[in-house]
Amino acid sequence: MIRADRLIKRFAGHLAVDEVSFQVERGEVVAFLGPNGAGKSTTMRMLAGCLEPDSGQALIADFDCHLNRRTAQAHLGYLPEGAPAYPSMTARGFVRFGLRARGYSGANLDEATRVALDRARLGAMADKPIGALSKGYKRRAALAAAIAHDPPVLILDEPTDGLDPNQKDGVRALITEMAPKKAILISTHLLDEVEAMCSRAVVIADGRIKMDGTPAEVARMAGGSLESAFRVLTRPLADPVISDAAEPRS
Ligand SMILES: Nc1ncnc2c1ncn2[C@@H]1O[C@H](COP(=O)(O)OP(=O)(O)OP(=O)(O)O)[C@@H](O)[C@H]1O
């Protein structure tokens, strides 16, 4: 359902994404892991059809994200980094706006809006301007808009960023609930999140894929802990190599 095939992206000569390839099938929740600046958001933006790759192909539900962008995006819910871009709109208005653009109207529009706001737990905040919401509620407004049309593919860039622990649990539960019918790619820096809800982890550093496996397989390559594996796999090239790969850096 999601396919990155040798994606390459340069910014002013800097190679941000370097021949990245992986796939996500229906029923999978795949974690996209990597240090700051590794190339996660850039890859996700290319998969979402928001950024053109220099070369390689991004496919959503077998549709090319650039040659066939509108059809690909019809199958996709994308939560970008940060907050929705319309601070004077309410969260409800923002969700309705997105649904209308996708052709929803009348009772279907009302029902899809109600379900999305409910699933993202907006509560009374649904009718306040987005600009007046806290960071966590802004994030939830964006999440509601991403899932409102019940797409088969979700690309969620740090979906729990800015949420308090209870709300993090709520979003994880929502992702787990949606997982059987969807292909879901999430980026996160929270390794407990990966163990709690992801069936696979793709690790990226310096724009290149370092490992693609189940969380247990990734953890096993460095003594059984995801944190140690993350450190070993994403260690800057200039760092000295530790003789025992099973030991995390201090
Ligand atoms: N629009 C842009 N113009 C120039 N450089 C960019 C642009 N977007 C990203 N980059 C660079 O590309 C590299 C990858 O950035 P990206 O945002 O994809 O990383 P990331 O893995 O999502 O990081 P983080 O975990 O901090 O969100 C970085 O070096 C970043 O500075």
Describe this structure in words.
By secondary structure, the protein is of the alpha/beta class. The chain has nine helices and ten strands. The protein has two domains: 173 residues, P-loop containing nucleotide triphosphate hydrolases (Rossmann fold, 3-Layer(aba) Sandwich); 68 residues, no CATH class. 35% of the residues lie in helices and 24% in strands. The strands form two sheets. The protein has a six-stranded mixed beta sheet, sandwiched between helices. Helix 6 links the parallel strand 7 and strand 8. Helix 3 runs parallel beside helix 5 and helix 4 packs across helix 5. The chain starts with a strand and ends in a 17-residue tail after the last helix. The C terminus is likely disordered. The structure holds adenosine-5'-triphosphate. The site of adenosine-5'-triphosphate has 11 residues, from strand 2 and helix 1. Adenosine-5'-triphosphate (ATP) binds next to strand 2 and helix 1.
Helix/strand/pairing category: alpha/beta
- Any guess at the CATH architecture of the largest domain? 3-Layer(aba) Sandwich
User: Which radius of gyration do the C-alpha atoms yield?
Assistant: 18 Å
Q: How many β-strand stretches?
A: 10
**What is the succession of H and E elements?**
EEEHEEHEHHHEHEHEEHH
- Shape designation: globular
Low-confidence stretches: 240-250
Question: What kind of sheet is the major sheet?
Answer: 6 strands, mixed
Give the N-to-C terminal Cα separation: 39 Å
Number of helices: 9
The CATH topology annotation of the largest domain reads as Rossmann fold
Q: Strands across the major sheet, in which order?
A: 6-7-8-3-9-10
CATH class term of the largest domain: Alpha Beta
Helix percentage range: 25-40%
* CATH homologous superfamily (4th level) name of the largest domain: P-loop containing nucleotide triphosphate hydrolases
Q: What percent strand? A: 15-25%
